[in-house]
Design goal:
This protein is of the alpha+beta class. The protein folds into 2 domains: 235 residues, ATPase, nucleotide binding domain (Nucleotidyltransferase, domain 5, 2-Layer Sandwich); 283 residues, Nucleotidyltransferase, domain 5 (2-Layer Sandwich), CATH 3.30.420.40. Helices cover 34% and strands 19% of the residues. It contains 18 helices and 25 strands. A 7-stranded mixed β-sheet has the order 17-18-16-15-21-22-25, with helices on both faces. The chain has a 4-stranded mixed β-sheet with strand order 3-2-1-5, with helices on both faces. Helix 1 crosses helix 6 and helix 2 packs across helix 4.
Length: 531
């Protein structure tokens, strides 16, 4: 039996998975709310993650009627990019700055001026962004030098929980890719970047491939959780990398779309594919010897939750999406820019702001909901456009290729959806139409990050759940084909082209620096936008 632990943003979940990849039991514990003292700030207490991990481990063992000695191996996954700072005794120095913290743009600008933007992308495959761990460290150096001077170790969220379980400072290649301190192409720490930023190499944890055993449960960890001393712990991966393993996205051409709090389009590649403009993230994959590219929409599922909590409290997501499915594709001209937390792909603008555009007295709540879902899908579609530009295939890793959709200038292929908001029927239809893709629903989508984590454990132990060549036997083979509605596809395509100057993030919408309604801003290729 394998134990997977997911240290998420809202809570920590533990699952038990057997050798056939079947989830036997699960348990979860919520985290305290994110602390945000100022706009754009986001912090959590690492000790609260550890509390939630202990509770979820105890809960899943009780639910399965097992004791810790029956766990063969453990894997961890969780939110990426967070910055946990420890002193020489392993004590937390301050609350962790987590992935959605946006305060560090000045540090990003300083780092790119210091190293050079092109050189930084060459070294790490990524530009400096407020989300990444290194820029958070630089903010602490600037604003809290007394804390910075006491740092001895830097970890990401799931790796802090591993430290509490085992006493070891370790990180996997996929997670490390999101720190901006890894030489992604060569899968090693970048001494040049660390040196330029003034970060001692001694602060950085040891690197491991995701399936490698990097630690074992310590006496203290066993006493706190009921797990057996010496139980092996695999390096694991960040949430997106582990989720990709759990969904079978482990071969060139395989692509998934995740819509949780944020939205991610994730493609596996057999070599590091760099976007010289930095619009996509290029990371090491959780599968050794592979890499992945991904585009991120910060406010994906968050957009619908914000709308529901603000304008439709008490309404269920199924109710909202069912009403939205009755609205014509394109929401009768209403558009939504989903920039509630700034934006990453393709705009790299932490100051971008959300907006409804084209709102009239004729629009209803259902129009707004559909516009929100289409806006998120349009944002994900921007990533697919970049994939086409960079020659990244979308073909389900050797599974039967889907028919080419009737959308101009877009490649063929289909996506596997993942994340809680993809399970609303009306929402799936809307997003398929707006994205211009067929989505193939995988029966293993729920808990796929934890399945992937458990697969990492099994790879080490040589069990059936090993992955090789684009197939993972922990994934039930059945796929449910989701049919496209051509009215949605064509209507979504027209609306996407009509509003593309908004989605470019140039920002008469996000910054109000131009008059709305004067057409696309300078620098937009009008001919390309007409399709």
């Amino acid at each position: 039996m394998f134990l997977g632990i997911d240290v998420g943003t809202g809570g920590t979940r533990a699952v038990l998975v057997n050798r056939r990849g079947v989830v036997v039991a699960s348990a979860a514990s919520e985290h305290a709310p994110i602390r945000s003292e100022h706009i754009g700030w986001a912090e959590q207490e690492p000790e609260d993650w550890w509390r939630a991990a202990r509770e979820s481990i105890a809960g899943v063992l009780a639910a399965a009627g097992l004791d810790g000695s029956q766990i063969e191996a453990i894997g961890l996954t969780g939110q990426m990019h967070g910055c946990v700072m420890l002193d020489a005794e392993g004590q937390v120095l301050r609350p962790a700055l987590i992935w959605c913290d946006q305060r560090t743009q000045p540090e990003c600008d300083w780092l790119e001026a210091k190293i050079g933007r092109e050189r930084l992308i060459e070294l790490t495959c990524n530009p400096a962004l407020p989300n990444f761990t290194l820029t958070k460290l630089l903010w602490v150096r600037t604003h809290q030098p007394e804390i910075f001077s006491r740092i001895a170790h830097v970890l990401c969220p799931k790796d802090y929980v591993r430290y509490r379980l085992t006493g070891e400072y370790a990180i996997d290649m996929q997670e490390a890719s999101g720190t901006l301190l890894l030489d992604v192409a060569h899968r090693r720490w970048s001494e040049e970047v660390a040196g330029a930023a003034g970060i001692p190499m001694s602060w950085l944890p040891d690197l491991f491939e995701s399936p490698e055993i990097c630690a074992r449960i310590s006496d203290a960890g066993a006493g706190a959780t009921g797990l057996a001393v010496g139980t092996p712990v695999a390096a694991g991966a960040g949430d997106q990398g582990a989720g990709a393993v759990g969904m079978g996205i482990v071969g060139p051409g395989s692509v998934s779309a995740t819509i949780g709090t944020s939205g991610v389009v994730f493609a596996s590649t057999d070599k590091p594919t760099m976007d010289r403009l930095g619009r996509l993230h290029t990371f090491c994959h959780a599968a050794p010897g592979l890499w992945h590219v991904m585009g991120v929409t910060n406010g994906a599922g968050l957009s619908l939750r914000w709308f529901r909590d603000t304008f439709a409290p008490g309404a269920s997501y199924d109710e909202l999406t069912a009403d939205a499915a009755k609205v014509p594709a394109g929401s009768d001209g209403l558009l939504w820019a989903p920039y509630l937390f700034g934006e990453r792909t393709p705009h790299l603008d932490p100051q971008a702001r959300a907006a409804f555009v084209g709102l009239t007295a004729s629009h209803t709540r259902a129009h707004c909901v559909r516009a929100v879902m289409e806006g998120v899908a349009f944002s994900l579609r921007d990533t697919l456009t970049l994939f086409a530009e960079l020659g990244i295939p979308v073909d389900q890793a050797g599974r039967r290729r889907c028919a080419r959709p009737a959308v101009a200038a877009d490649p063929g292929g289909c996506l596997r959806p993942r994340g809680g908001t993809t399970r609303c029927r009306g929402g799936r239809r809307v997003r398929r139409g707006a994205a211009g893709r067929r989505w193939r629903g995988c029966v293993a989508q729920r808990g796929s990050s934890l399945r992937g984590d458990s697969a990492c454990c099994g790879v080490h132990r040589g069990e059936e759940c090993s992955y090789d060549g684009g197939s993972i036997s922990t994934i039930p083979a059945g796929l449910s084909r989701l049919k496209r509605n051509w009215e949605d596809v064509n209507g979504g395509a027209r609306s996407w082209r009509r509003g593309n100057w908004i989605w470019t993030g140039r920002t008469c919408v996000s910054r109000s620096v131009r008059k709305r309604g004067t057409g696309p801003p300078a620098g937009v290729d009008h001919a390309a936008q007409r399709g």
